[in-house]
């Protein structure tokens, strides 16, 4: 289940006309990276939920083998989204992946780890941190004892290490049966389960991951995409860059145009957009140029959606 129904508020104005799962990272949209990774990992049936930008998301998913869309006329939350898609998902555990998360997680190993856990309530992918740090606390055996500040019953001194929940998890069949029609998987399902004494497993992920929920992370994901491919910059099909322009750590999408003279540094120019050098730390979308510093200062405390 790929959760793609959010509003993408923290990425505005990038998401004013484009749903967050379709913002480009490198050579294709975020959702394409996620779906391609799931397919390579052997996932044969994928359900993508959609609300904001549902038409665009549906058109993008159309034609992908094994992919269907679960439409939500109103936002149901992460738990409600999975509950609504129950028939399409079928029975058994469900791999849940936030559509704005880029991570090279070994899917087969994650699924195997969940199958080996007893009980099989859920398995959360966690990036390890020091004890007390991050949104998750783990005991010596890797069981979750703290989640978003709430501690499991009887686990006041059991935390051995901290961690950051990556936004990827396996939801067991038992907990699937308790899902509300509207609500959050973490806040309304996992935390109450911990309070009841349920045991949630963890799967450690020691490599970087990118949550495309903020402007900083969006830029970092594009820079990381270049680094993984050993590229200084990248220019898409049909894009034109003026002879007097030097690209440094920048991604120029298909059909984009870069004019002027000087350097384009750490910029992302969307497909079909027009940028003028010199320019740095800027996301250029069709009809607008958005400096990253300006965007970060405009919404410093807006909650994640």
Q: Number of helical runs?
A: 9
The CATH topology annotation of the largest domain reads as Spore Coat Polysaccharide Biosynthesis Protein SpsA, Chain A
Radius of gyration: 20 Å
Mean pLDDT across all amino acids: 91
Give a quick account of the main beta sheet: strands, pairing sense, barrel closure: 10 strands, mixed
Gap between N and C termini, in Å?
17 Å
Strand content: 25-35%
Which consecutive residue ranges, at least 5 long each, have pLDDT under 50? 294-305
> What's the count of strands?
23
Q: What percent of residues adopt helix (DSSP H or I)?
A: 25-40%
Coarse shape: globular
| CATH domain class of the largest domain | Alpha Beta
Provide the domain count: 2
Task: Outline the structure in words.
The chain is an alpha/beta fold. It folds into 2 domains: 210 residues, Alpha-Beta Complex (Spore Coat Polysaccharide Biosynthesis Protein SpsA, Chain A); 84 residues, no CATH class. The chain contains 9 helices and 23 strands. Strands 1, 4, 5, 6, 8, 9, 10, 11, 12 and 13 form a 10-stranded mixed β-sheet that branches. The protein is globular and about 65 Å long. The C terminus is likely disordered.
């Amino acid at each position: 289940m790929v959760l793609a129904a959010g509003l993408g508020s923290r990425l505005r104005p990038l998401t004013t006309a484009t749903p967050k799962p379709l913002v480009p990272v490198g050579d294709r949209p975020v959702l394409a990276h996620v779906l391609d990774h799931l397919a390579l990992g052997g996932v044969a049936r994928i359900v993508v939920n959609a609300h904001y930008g549902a038409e665009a998301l549906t058109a993008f998913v159309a034609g992908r083998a094994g992919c269907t869309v679960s439409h939500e006329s109103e936002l149901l939350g992460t738990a409600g989204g999975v509950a609504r898609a129950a028939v399409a998902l079928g029975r058994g555990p469900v791999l849940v992946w936030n559509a704005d998360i880029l991570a090279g997680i070994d899917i087969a190993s994650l699924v195997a780890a969940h199958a080996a856990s007893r009980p099989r309530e859920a398995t959360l992918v966690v990036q390890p941190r020091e004890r007390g740090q991050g949104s998750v606390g783990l005991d010596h055996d890797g069981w979750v004892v703290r989640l978003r500040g709430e501690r499991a019953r009887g686990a006041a001194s059991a935390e051995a290490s901290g961690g950051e929940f990556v936004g990827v998890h396996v939801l067991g069949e038992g907990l699937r049966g308790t899902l509300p029609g509207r609500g959050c998987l973490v806040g309304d399902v996992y935390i109450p389960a911990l309070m009841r004494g349920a045991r949630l497993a963890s799967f450690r992920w020691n490599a970087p991951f990118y949550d495309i929920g903020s402007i900083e992370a969006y830029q970092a994901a594009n820079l990381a995409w270049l680094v993984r491919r050993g590229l200084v910059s990248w220019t898409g099909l049909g894009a034109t860059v003026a002879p007097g322009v030097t690209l440094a750590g920048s991604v120029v999408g298909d059909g984009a145009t870069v004019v002027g003279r000087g350097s384009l540094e750490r910029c992302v120019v969307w497909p079909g957009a027009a940028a003028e050098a010199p320019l740095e730390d800027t996301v250029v979308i069709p009809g607008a140029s958005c400096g990253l510093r300006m965007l970060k200062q405009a919404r410093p405390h807006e909650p994640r959606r």
